[in-house]
Design brief:
Elements lengths: L9 H7 L41 H14 L3 E5 L2 H12 L5 E5 L4 H13 L3 E5 L7 H4 L4 E7 L11 H10 L3 E5 L4 H4 L9 E5 L13 E5 L1 H14 L5 H11 L2 H21 L3 E5 L9 H7 L15 E6 L2 H11 L4 E2 L9 E3 L11 H6 L6 E5 L5 H11 L3
């Protein structure tokens, strides 16, 4: 009897899950179906008609099956961007008059979507400290429907009480939704921990090559279908060539993320010991306030805890404030001063000028994102080369 694919390790599933059988004309790699329209196969529902905008071409279907397998889910759905996945999910699950609880320190685009756009539609939110469960019940309202968090926050790398989030959501009949972008399915599988939906900006680690924008929604078939029906109308489809690039990028996810986990931990240790560095935010460091929680939550099953799965992103502050931060960025050779994260190239940026530029300065300061904060997304370059470059740029 053939061994069920679901019983194989994630490295094998990344390569083989979701693949068409038989393969298209014998092609080992999934071809790009550059067709907007497909011949009718007797579909009875508008949402089943084969059409690019409905995200159900062969390229989409293979991606959906592969992503679902990686998260141990019933279904998955890709979208035109991470924000398309987030916005469509919230619009599909919430209506005017509904209320949601949201982790306080979120990606700036998500926070603005919730605080501004959803508010204009009559959907209200209360921002909570996701590290303090004792305060969550006081924020509940009779119309609260959903609790939204991130596996690790950008750029401070906070680690919420994710097990507490699931327990609280179950106790109060809320949907638990998590943005799993920074952890990736390699380091954390939230659906197996009880979350209802996991969202990804596939632009980042899942694709890993800084050449597309894409998003994904993963979870139960019923919930993913609700999101798909809303996405069908909003039109946030992922084009077939982007599907192909994401499909190709996923196959090396395990190789890339394991290297990034190891490399980022080594770089975090170097920075933490450098006299020019005031503070390092990385859950793999014992100095991180939730290091023990991160050890319990993140990492591949069976892997030693010290190896961890703490991800490829860290942030730090230099002594000397914004001027010192800008001086460092100008001196570095290998890291590219650019927004986004999760690619094979190491990227460095000041979040106050990029990912959180849309927030008022006082709001950034309140959230712990000062002008001097630097975010480093570690790529797959040699770790020692990156450390040497940081050392020369710091004046070491």
């Amino acid at each position: 009897m053939n061994k069920p694919l679901a019983s194989y390790r994630i490295d094998t599933q990344l390569i083989h899950a979701g693949e068409l059988s038989p393969r298209v004309a014998g092609a080992v790699s999934m071809p790009v179906f550059q067709s907007s329209t497909f011949a009718s196969a007797g579909e009875t529902s508008y949402h089943d008609v084969r059409y690019i905008r409905l995200n159900n071409t062969p390229n989409h279907q293979v991606l959906h099956a592969k992503l679902a397998a990686l998260e141990g889910a019933e279904a998955a759905l890709v979208a035109a961007s991470g924000m398309a996945a987030i916005s469509t999910t919230l619009l599909a699950l919430l209506s005017a008059g509904d209320h949601l609880l949201v982790q306080d320190c979120l990606y700036g685009g998500t926070r603005s979507l919730i605080a501004e756009d959803l508010a204009r539609l009559g959907i209200t939110a209360t921002f909570i400290d996701a590290d303090e469960p004792s305060g969550w019940a006081a924020a509940l309202r009779p119309n609260t429907r959903l609790l939204y968090v991130e596996a690790m926050t950008n750029p401070l790398l906070q680690v919420a009480d994710l097990q507490g989030v699931v327990a609280f959501a179950r106790a109060h009949r809320l949907l638990a939704v998590i943005d799993n972008t920074l952890a990736t399915p390699l380091n954390y599988q939230p659906l197996r921990s009880g979350f209802d939906l996991a969202l990804h900006s596939c632009t980042k680690y899942l694709n890993g090559h800084t050449d597309i924008v894409a998003g994904a929604v993963v979870g139960s078939a019923a919930l993913v279908e609700r999101v798909k029906r809303r996405l069908d109308h909003l039109g946030g489809a992922l084009d077939p060539h982007a599907c192909f690039l994401l499909y190709r990028g996923l196959k090396t996810l395990a190789l890339r993320v394991r290297h990034q986990n190891r490399s980022t931990l080594a770089i975090a240790k170097f920075l933490a010991e450098h006299p020019a560095v005031q503070r390092v935010n990385y859950p793999g460091l014992p100095s991180h306030p939730r290091h023990q929680r991160a050890r319990e939550l993140f990492g591949e099953p069976g892997a030693p805890a010290e190896q961890g799965g703490f991800g490829g992103l860290l942030s730090f502050e230099l002594r000397g404030g914004r001027a010192a931060a800008e001086r460092l960025l100008a001196r570095l050779v290998l890291p590219i001063d650019a927004p986004s994260l999760g690619g094979v190239e190491t990227l460095i940026t000041r979040p106050a000028a990029t990912s959180h530029a849309g927030l008022a300065a006082d709001e950034r300061e309140r959230l712990g994102i000062p002008e001097s904060l630097i975010r480093l997304s570690v790529g797959v370059e040699d770790t020692d080369d990156l450390i040497a470059d940081l050392e020369q740029a710091l004046g070491g």
